Amino acid sequence: MPASSDRPPSTATGQAPSNLDPGSRGRTGLWLVGARGAISTCVAYGIAGIRHDLIPSVGLPSAYPPLSGLDLVSLDDFVLGGHDVCTRDLSASAGELVAAGILPADLVSMVRDDAARFEAAIRPGILDVAETGFRDLDPRAAALGSLAPAEQSAAIEADLVAFREEHDLDRVVVVYLASTEAAVARQEAWNSGPEFEKAVAAGVPQPASLLYAYAAIRTGSPFVNFTPSIGANVPALMEMAATLGVPIAGNDGKTGETLVKTALAPMFRARALQVLAWQGYNMLGNRDGEVLRNPSHKAAKLESKDAALRSILGGATGATDGPHTQVSIDYVPSLGDWKTAWDFIHFEGFLGAKMSMQFTWSGCDSALAAPLVIDLARFADLAARSGESGALTHLGCYFKSPLQSREHDFHRQMEALYAYAQKHTAR
Amino acid sequence: MPASSDRPPSTATGQAPSNLDPGSRGRTGLWLVGARGAISTCVAYGIAGIRHDLIPSVGLPSAYPPLSGLDLVSLDDFVLGGHDVCTRDLSASAGELVAAGILPADLVSMVRDDAARFEAAIRPGILDVAETGFRDLDPRAAALGSLAPAEQSAAIEADLVAFREEHDLDRVVVVYLASTEAAVARQEAWNSGPEFEKAVAAGVPQPASLLYAYAAIRTGSPFVNFTPSIGANVPALMEMAATLGVPIAGNDGKTGETLVKTALAPMFRARALQVLAWQGYNMLGNRDGEVLRNPSHKAAKLESKDAALRSILGGATGATDGPHTQVSIDYVPSLGDWKTAWDFIHFEGFLGAKMSMQFTWSGCDSALAAPLVIDLARFADLAARSGESGALTHLGCYFKSPLQSREHDFHRQMEALYAYAQKHTAR
Amino acid sequence: MPASSDRPPSTATGQAPSNLDPGSRGRTGLWLVGARGAISTCVAYGIAGIRHDLIPSVGLPSAYPPLSGLDLVSLDDFVLGGHDVCTRDLSASAGELVAAGILPADLVSMVRDDAARFEAAIRPGILDVAETGFRDLDPRAAALGSLAPAEQSAAIEADLVAFREEHDLDRVVVVYLASTEAAVARQEAWNSGPEFEKAVAAGVPQPASLLYAYAAIRTGSPFVNFTPSIGANVPALMEMAATLGVPIAGNDGKTGETLVKTALAPMFRARALQVLAWQGYNMLGNRDGEVLRNPSHKAAKLESKDAALRSILGGATGATDGPHTQVSIDYVPSLGDWKTAWDFIHFEGFLGAKMSMQFTWSGCDSALAAPLVIDLARFADLAARSGESGALTHLGCYFKSPLQSREHDFHRQMEALYAYAQKHTAR
Amino acid sequence: MPASSDRPPSTATGQAPSNLDPGSRGRTGLWLVGARGAISTCVAYGIAGIRHDLIPSVGLPSAYPPLSGLDLVSLDDFVLGGHDVCTRDLSASAGELVAAGILPADLVSMVRDDAARFEAAIRPGILDVAETGFRDLDPRAAALGSLAPAEQSAAIEADLVAFREEHDLDRVVVVYLASTEAAVARQEAWNSGPEFEKAVAAGVPQPASLLYAYAAIRTGSPFVNFTPSIGANVPALMEMAATLGVPIAGNDGKTGETLVKTALAPMFRARALQVLAWQGYNMLGNRDGEVLRNPSHKAAKLESKDAALRSILGGATGATDGPHTQVSIDYVPSLGDWKTAWDFIHFEGFLGAKMSMQFTWSGCDSALAAPLVIDLARFADLAARSGESGALTHLGCYFKSPLQSREHDFHRQMEALYAYAQKHTAR
Question: Where in the sequence does UniProt note compositional bias of the Polar residues kind (chains A, B, C, D) (predicted)?
């Protein structure tokens, strides 16, 4: 298969850093939290496959114009590592994905060495406070789980620093990919950096995603949260990221049904069609789906999925209230990683005519998510080299709940990214 | 139902015309070719309903921000007239639309006077050369059909001038809404204005839509072609429109399945997903569908529907050839005006994963088309007042085959319209 | 519109009753509980429309061969009455159904007299114990609600007897059509007739549907429960019905999604295809949907919808457990009476190939239910004339939870009904 | 994977043949015409997989009650052979099916020996007269193509006899699985056996499927036509089959969309719902689809798909004409063997309410067809042992155009098969 990518040349520029002049591209660590999950596995095998010219870059937006014109880190220069709480090794995950028809069997056998190097760099992670009954739990992760938050954070930081030093990396980008954590009440201490640090020191339990974000920021590592978990989305961490000059991005990768929703809804608004109801019914059968059987995890996920639509359509045609929207999720084990969603849109047009549209999306979640993770890591790296810090609002197109942005219209989000790319390419 | 429109104030500005300063808004004639068809009927009852505050402006984009901020002609200032080749009167068309659940019965009875005024201004039109076996054909239209092209064109011009004078109108906008005409071979004479005029004078038969465009342009009337028929889309007429300062717009209103396609396809391109196949299957049961049973009419329609997709997706991910696309149309009488389309999109993502999306669109064609016709008439009127002439490329979002434009991405088309609106509002 | 029915001749046979020789067909009362609801309104206008030859019998199975060959009561010989707890009159219900595009406006105006006669025979009913916050509640119904169960039952009986006597009816068939009542714990006393009568006498509160069934049986009136509420489905009432020679039928009309499920599932079984998952997502916007927002009502409904599938597919291909099935229902007000359901079927075939089927059902619930109510009343009347009593198992095809039957395969249910018809026709 | 089949015991009965007493089950040849096509490949690997207990019998109806109670030939006793016109070997076909996710890779490697034995028994076949431009054509098949019909038939017969003798088989069942041949005009000579034999002797060209049927019948081999090609469906061959005591079955396997149609349509009839339109849109990407690009082949296929619906629904509710039905087929290469069909059903119910149902069927054609081929071979063998001859009408459930039967209702067809099974089991 001929690689259709349009990768930037690998000669580094060597110029002094400035806003539009990213510093020298060296080797960048890509640290995946949830390193043996389906998405991380696809990231690892995908990067290896492209490196060895075994697969094309289809599905990877940063490999095509206009984004490929940017001075992004080459896939050749990524070094992978990560945290996980399970003991099964990467090849077990890969085997599952081969059986599910997602990873090609020959790819897995041809990049065995790359996978082994990644596997060697996976360290035991910390469990989310609410996580229970996990299969094949790593006893070292369980041990970390009983430590105080400050000790947990310190352990993560130590792993990140050790990884950077061992591989002589210019920087490490942390991407959070662990399963959705339980919805938690906001803590007062999350509103300011010093208060938060006090709470951590005092042993107040914190969600795992928040501790990961904290550790990443403290070590100067750009942090990307691809899940609906809270991550860096609290004022305390936003503040620290700005102060320490660390770029952050999130939350919740926009991979499937929500992507389609935010690409379609603007059409109804543009045509002044009044959406009466937009109902979404999702089925998924992977670990993510299993975790969502827990109602408190489900609540976090659904909130994230529903907001975008209200934001795009709310009051579009003068109706005082927005459309009736509901999102349901059911766990259907036989589907595995092949998520299937059905959406029904009931709308009114001219003369009161009531019409409808319905769509079924059958997508492979991991294959959709993995290239976005790679893109985000490349963009976070570019931002760090360019001296950007805090929430990277030009990356809104990648997320269901973009940090510090109310724009959910996918096309406007893409225009914003293209405008950013043009500014950075025009130098 | 409260009218949710945001209509511009009806005080005219009275300033001298300039590019960004449209002249005084007076009374504008809206001349509908195919005046008793379903779309025209919805246009007439819709305008009357909004005027009398009986229906909201839902579905009419020009009634909402940002377009409502423009100095568009008020719906109160439209005077309706048109051509048709049938004898049945407007109330028969309205009755059919009530039975089909499209026009509300009470609206029809409450605006009877407005409908009667429109009916009084409908004149016999000319038949397309290929048209045969039409039911309830107006014998006067049949008589016109036997005249030479120059006489036909002169008859149309006379009707347009008489309408303008009788109602003391500032200008007449002609919107072509007749059934799709048969595909015809391009004539050499269409390439230049003088050659075309010679051919008409010499009696070379011309498609009806072309004669209508010719007559409109000669009388200085903006011409909008909402059908896939050829209309003004030949160099000869483009040239005349530019020379005589007449704005033109077309072809083929983007109301349903193609609208969705061009709103969705950019999402696949933006995510670097490779569309392998995009198949569309359309069912329609109205007169348009009946005409499409004639294979030569169908060919014209399908060509128009298929091009947009190739333009948006062609070569997006480096594939040498674009996606496999096909559009089928079947006539299903029981559906009447409720067009139903099913689209299937087969696509490849990262790691070669093959995924699919499918959607069903159930829309009422006339209720979708009518407000776009009103918008187009308002924009064509604004363009004429602003001294614009030739193809109005900022109106691409309204058409399947926008004149002199290769942009089919619906969102980019909307951005172009909004940019135009901003320029005109900012004065 | 030509009536396409095949109605039995109206000459009564006058022979002595025997199992296969129903007694003289006289006038039969059709007593609708929930008399002003959407289904009852469609029953009333539908019967009137067919009587006056204004509509065809489409949708009414008993009007076509082979069922039309039976000696069923003529629609001309039905006299309508019923109970309701609301004050709004029938014409208000009819108006809503006209607005929703279900009842034709001209039909409503042409059978005004028939509707008025039905309206005059509607009496205040009793509320279900759990019913609260009902709009336009009839104060007389509210007063009945505060009485002891024995008094409530006596009031219903008095209404039934008065109706029979006033109109000189041979018998009254009671059809229960009230909104789904809350799920209730089974009472020990429901297991035997005498115990149940003791409980009623002692003032133990009973679900409304059960009291209606009790009153019907005590007055010798055949009882049909078209809802998922409990009705006569307790041993105590089954026993009384057998003892008193009263035919009963139920529960829960099989009108839409479940009908399709039970018609399709046998195909998978016949082909030895292993259904892995069958997920159903339902949207409805009528009063029924509103009531279902109450979780305890929803539970009763879902249980009824899910059992059929397990019964048909359970263990079909040797799998130890049946397929993964789930049914979800959401309330979508804009849909009104137009119920829309999406079902997804994931199945495995030969060589382990995983395939899928999905369907969308868009049906008008009342228009689907009303003719089945008429059929059931005709069959219950025939059974009474034929001396049949207890659960009418040949009517299983009409119900989601057929009384005393485990057969859910729609085609086998139809074969059973046709066999019954053949036996009764062959005389 | 545990085999869930319920295979009959392998002890032969050894009794004298009689109608309900099939003769001794010995070894049966299964001769597949189109031996290297996708269906044959699935048949071969499927039989081998079940023999070696590597796959369950899911999808194979004859492996489950009540059919498993019959004295059918054991899969262990089948010996495979066949004809093909291509040179590529079976493992190439198997490789394609593995890549398409249909055949499990490990199954293919584990039954390599069985596949090699089958491969060794494949002989060059004859081309259909209209076949042109075939890839990887076997030169021996091309040579056979230039012979006279009588010589072609003799060559086939010789292959069948040699296969039977070489493997010491009790009988050979021929299953015709070659690609759909071009529609041809009926020949007068097809109406009688002697006339047909004269025409063959005189060198009148004949469709390949007809010559295969002729050869099979002449050698006393039961003949099953799983394709829409003509096969034995002419009076001349019917007559010979009856005279020579040869069972025949066909035409056109009912595997996917038509299966669903004939399972669903009876539901509409049973509920007296008037189907206004039933539109089917099919996409397929395998060799079958490629052949269908040829319009004359497509015509044969579509006729076969459309008749069933008319037969089940025609005049059901007194409408003088049946529903409006259309079937479209498009070739979509990216889908490969995964056929996807969308059906739209527009129907009218009580009170004139217009409703709709739509379904999407995504099935793997070969995996659906292969087990039916095995079933048919077992039933044809049982029929031969039981002394049955001519069209086996109890096998109608397997075909789109069952020979000598007008019953298309899938459920009634199943009842007929179950009745046959009961009669044969009851001995």
Answer: 7-18
Burial of C335 (0-12, 13-18, 19+ CB in 10 A): buried
Tally DSSP H helices, then E strands, for chain B.
Answer: 14, 11
Q: What is the pLDDT of residue B25?
A: 61
Q: Is B326 on the interface with D (CB under 8 A)?
A: yes
Neighbors of chain A by Cβ distance (3+ pairs < 8 Å): B, C, D
pLDDT at position B304 is: 60
Contacts of D99 in chain B (CB under 8 A): none
Residue D318's pLDDT is: 57
Query: What distance in Å separates residue C341's CA from the closest CA in chain B?
Result: 14
Angle at C363 between CA C357 and CA C366, to 5 degrees: 145
Q: How many Å apart are CA A360 and CA A280, to the nearest integer?
A: 10
Residue D31 to residue D380: CA distance in whole angstroms: 12
Burial tier of C293 (Cβ tally within 10 Å: 0-12, 13-18, 19+):
exposed
- C5, D318: Cβ pair inside 8 Å? yes
Judged by a CB distance cut-off of 8 A, whether residue C317 touches chain A is no
CB contacts < 8 A, B to D, total 58
Q: D104 vs C55: CB contact, 8 Å cut-off?
A: no
In B, which residues are within 8 Å of A42 by CB distance? 350-351
D317 touches chain B (CB under 8 A): no
Q: Which residues contact A120 (CB under 8 A, 6 or more apart)?
A: none
**What domains appear along chain B, each with residue ranges and CATH number?**
28-253+367-426 (3.40.50.720), 257-364 (3.30.360.10)
> Does the CB of B6 have a partner CB in chain A at under 8 Å?
yes
CB contact under 8 A, B342 and D332: no
Coil vs helix vs strand at C27: coil
Backbone angles phi, psi at D179, to 5 degrees: -55, 150
C-alpha dihedral, B199 to B201 to B206 to B212, nearest 10°: 120
A278 touches chain B (CB under 8 A): no
Alpha-carbon gap: D80 to the closest alpha carbon of chain A (Å) = 30
Q: Give dist(CA D172, CA D164) in Å, integer.
A: 7
Residue window 42-81, chain B: list those with CB within 8 Å of chain A: 42, 45-46, 49, 55-61, 63-64
pLDDT tens figures, D363-406? 999 999 999 999 999 999 999 999 999 999 999 999 999 999 99
A contacts of B56 (beta carbons < 8 Å): 317-318
Strands (E), A268-379: 274-284, 324-331, 338-348, 354-364
Q: Which residues pair with A356 in a beta bridge?
A: A346, B362
In Å, the largest CA–CA distance within chain A is 69
Measured distance CA(B316)–CA(B305) in Å, rounded = 20
Please give the order of strands across the beta sheet that includes D338-348: C324-331, C274-284, C338-348, C354-364, D354-364, D338-348, D274-284, D324-331
Q: What is the pTM of this model?
A: 0.91
Q: Distance (Å, rounded) from C-alpha A304 to C-alpha A281? A: 15
Q: Is the pLDDT of residue D6 over 50?
A: no
CA distance C105 to C72: 30
pLDDT in tens, A253-305: 999 899 999 999 999 999 999 999 999 999 988 777 776 666 666 666 666 66
Residue A59: name the closest of A375, A338, A362, A336 by CA: A375
Helices (H), B59-203: 90-99, 105-110, 112-120, 139-145, 149-166, 193-201
Which residues of chain C from 71 to 130 reach within 8 Å of chain B, CB to CB? 101, 105
Could you read off the pLDDT of C18-37 as tens digits, one per residue? 344 555 567 999 999 999 99
* Residues whose CB falls within 8 Å of the CB of residue A265, separated by 6 or more in sequence, listed in order: A275, A278, A308, A309, A312, A313, A409
- Closest Cα partner for C180 from C33, C379, C396? C33
